[in-house]
Amino acid sequence: MGFLGFIKGFSSVYRAKPRIRVYPSFCQHGYCHIQCRTFSHFKDHDDSVLPVLIVGAGPVGLVLSILLTKLGCDKKRSTVSCKTYEVGWVKCSVLEKSKSFSHHPQAHFINNRSMEVFRKLDGLAEEIQRSQPPVDLWRKFVYCTSLTGPVLGSVDHMQPQDFEKVVSPVSVAHFSQYKLIGLLLKKLEDLNFHICKPEGLNDEPFRGGELLMGYECVKINATGQSVNVTASHLKEGKYTERNISCNILVGTDGAGSTIRKLAGIELRGEKDLQKLVSVHFLSRDLGQYLLNERPGMLFFIFNTEAIGVLVAHDLMQGEFVLQMPFYPPQQSLDDFSFETCKHLILKLVGQELSDIDVIDIKPWVMHAEVAEKFVSCDNRIILAGDAAHRFPPAGGFGMNTGIQDAHNLAWKIAALVKGIAPSSILHTYETERRPIAIFNTALSVQNFRAAMVVPATLGLDPTVANSVHQTITDGVGSILPSGLQRAILDGIFTIGRAQLSEFLLNEKNLLGSSRLAKLRRLFEEGKSLQLQFPAEDLGFRYLEGALIPDSDGVGAQEQPTGCRKDYIPSSDPGSRLPHMNVCMLSNSSSEACISTLDLLPGDKVEFLLFIAPLEKSYHLAVAALKVAEEFKVSVKVCILWPTETIKGAEARSKTALAPWENYIDVAEAKKSSDSSSWWSMCQMTEKGAILVRPDEHIAWRAKSGLDDDPILEMKSIFSAILKV
């Protein structure tokens, strides 16, 4: 299926009957359903209603809770770390149905954009970089007949520019999900969040700042101004229900989302792309061997006795996850006992290991689906992360897309809670993020298909295996006894794996030599499974939403190619702000150099206006500051000076912007004399201006200045962005 065909699979929206009880509310015209009204403010005096309730304490839910908690207004000193934080009015609590956090590694690749988000979480990105394995231990994918046998090929997914920090101030990372969750929990504790179990709670209303373990959402009722959630928990040996009222309910509860199901929101896309069994195990001996002999992140192993993909989460600690194809009902989970899995691991390793410790065995199904909507029930029920979209793991888009969902959503919720924007601002979350999810789903599927080309080249086409399985399960083979079905399936797979015998797969065999040559070309041309997609990781763009498109229209979204493409900086509205190192010119900063992305704070809803030190641009900046005050939103002006004209910069800006003080003078920190200037990199003239949102995406730009009344123009701009 091509990209356009894939996208069409998401175009028809199925209007399922919601399982939320919707009550009528009174308006000036009489009774109408709640979808006809919005809530413009929160009742601060009503402590029984929580502003935001997040269901699901995976990476997405935890990141969202941190972002919301940091987007406060009152300084508060942490009793844990003795640091001062902006904590206050974006109160939120988190429900998690599990009583404890899983130690299964799960997701492990963190892309550039997610690491940029983590830089704003009190040094989280730096902690990840310090704690992750050295990059030389995970930069490659290795293809082999066994972990100690012949190597069929390898692909290095890191290029020199990935370490130069030219397009981003931070590099990608390889860090297991459970370790990430541990660091996120520490950040929450530093923000005075309390991790609670049912036994330690009374019946008082939740006041925000709680992470409640062992609470499962079982019912949702949407009333006129709030969402009432019924959560079940085990207390003193009995299941007890507790009602929680909130203004906004965010479902970050994973691929099988309860919130999505209770809200009656359907998924669109491809189901059951592949069924697999995941085996989490430890072996320091194996880790040490691979570390010394053939380090890598993924090992694709093909031999006559077993086929699998080994994910090396940490070679130094010897922590691995083995993924193997799974074909129920002919196979069952009982066929993958601990002893059987140890035996299969040894077959794939190719030699004996004495320290294999199988921790966990889980079946899972690969899907490629996106929710028909991300926001429902008058902008009060919202889906994010895997609850809103579930991808093949190829390319690591699942967790990363979810983290960026949270980043997009947090400032909009904060703007609503603070009274800066109406609830319609939340609908722009769906307008912006759903097309990105659809695109990333298509790219993930394309990357997954590329992974399947390798075994197909070796004579093992997975599509043939799946067709044989379907014929046995649903076709003519379905009338056969289950035992005979299993025997036929095993026999066919054994014959298929014979294609991988040393007799056939070698340079002296004509067929084997041809297959190996074709495999090498696949790797050289970048047509196998890819790890990094800089153009998509950093270059994704919102085409409509809380932004002002250019007057000359919006360009069409490029189709994914499945190949790595370099990121090209862009100042198009909806794009992420380009990274450039700049030096702060204030006396107190000692000319410290930072990224342009660092000019936006992570602790308040603030827009950033880039201008050059020109008279008309200063007038525009003054207009923006005046209008922002009227709209009750913070704007900081950044005056970007060419390096050769910084003398007297501060005095000039102070005079031009008086009495306003929320501005900063910076100078370009060019790496060399032939480096592009800021305005040329943005493909604009210095007469232009760029307005950046709190999530570091460009809300509006003027390519070459404004001819109209700047006050009227800025009023129109902020009205359109904030939906007021």
UniProtKB/TrEMBL annotation:
GO terms for biological process: ubiquinone biosynthetic process. InterPro entries: FAD-bd, RIFMO-like. The keyword Flavoprotein applies. GO terms for molecular function: FAD binding; oxidoreductase activity. Residues 51-437 form the FAD-binding domain. Keywords: FAD, Flavoprotein. It comes from the Eukaryota. Signal peptide: none annotated. Pfam families: FAD_binding_3 (PF01494), Rng_hyd_C (PF21274). GO terms for cellular component: mitochondrion. PANTHER family: FAD_NAD(P)-BINDING OXIDOREDUCTASE FAMILY PROTEIN (PTHR43004:SF6), TRK SYSTEM POTASSIUM UPTAKE PROTEIN (PTHR43004). This is FAD-binding domain-containing protein. It comes from Populus tomentosa.
